[in-house]
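Re: beginner question about structure tokens

> Can someone show what the tokenized structure looks like for a real chain? I only ever see the sequence side.

Sure, here's an example I had lying around. Input first:
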Amino acid sequence: MTTAGTAEGPAGTAGPGPLAGVRVVELAGIGPGPFAAMLLADLGADVVRVDRPGGPSLAIDPAHDVTNRNKRSVIVDLKAPDGPARVLDLAARADVLIEGNRPGVAERLGVGPDACHARNPRLVYGRMTGWGQDGPLAHRAGHDVAYIAVTGTLGMIGAPDTPPAVPANLLGDYAGGSLYLVVGLLAALHHARVTGTGQVVDAAIVDGTAHLSAMIHGMLAAGGWQDRRGANLLDGGCPYYGTYETADGGYMAVGALEPQFYDEFVRLLGLRDVAEARGDWTRWGDLREAVAARFASRTRDEWTAVFEGSDACVAPVLSLREAPHHPHLAARSTFTDHGGITQPAPAPRFSATPTAVRSGPALPGADTAAVARDWDTPRLVDDLPQGD
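And the corresponding structure tokens:
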């Protein structure tokens, strides 16, 4: 792991990132909005997070909230008489604004798209929600697991004889939500710079998560995917694409799909006598039992050594604390240490504009004076205590 925030960043040299010069206002929220803003900040944007008085709503120490790294924070009470004007001052000087309220809330607070575009027609206004800005559920509460449930993606995950497995909040909040919001923001930012006209980006977790399953829907239409869990090539139904327990209670992940990788897999596993079962799905049950029995005969580390350096597409299943120490990830500095917190380094990587973790999590309100100066928004500091 590298130590970020010094002259040596995760890509090997210090640099501002490809979004240097882009200004982003983030109205404080939870989940996918903050992560999207972190990604923009990692890429070099000057992200100012507008926090509420009283701090964040999540039960986590702000000093450890990595999704607020590389950002700056100001505190604005949007319910105060002059609160909206302060945010609009920021919006007038920004390229992008991100909000994650239910539909209509930002408008009621006086910082909706119309109010912001009246001050800055070039602004890209990003809206991050679970259900989207319209539809029967648009005004309902929800969380990741409900959003991915109705898209069909949650129902794909897990064994056929158990309830669907919940993939933390990675699939909905971050993959279907944050990443699609960022794609939309960057596309709209490009359009704004070409035409001089901003727009609203409606990023809904249900839309993004459904979009992620495009290939599966194609396979389903072609008859190459069964609409049930644990019965397909990529969902654990295939005995040479899944996970197996080892003698010490660890797990190995197997992805030996192509014939040449499968041949290497069964050779190293010592199961050449069942190699022909690969293409006969009626024998997959027997093959799975044989593979499971072999993996159960040795520890995870022993099997890792067996498959080391091979093209069998087999890897140990590591924990969050183990992952940074994997030799390949360590060599690539996939994880970094900053402020005593081990965390993923910015991704992806750029040859001309390398990125880095430049600062730790922004503490609520800590940067109000600096932002007021840098963005020329003096109203931000009107009510600050003396000496802030």
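Each token stands for a local structural state, so reading them left to right follows the chain. The CA atoms of residues 194 and 356 lie 28 Å apart.
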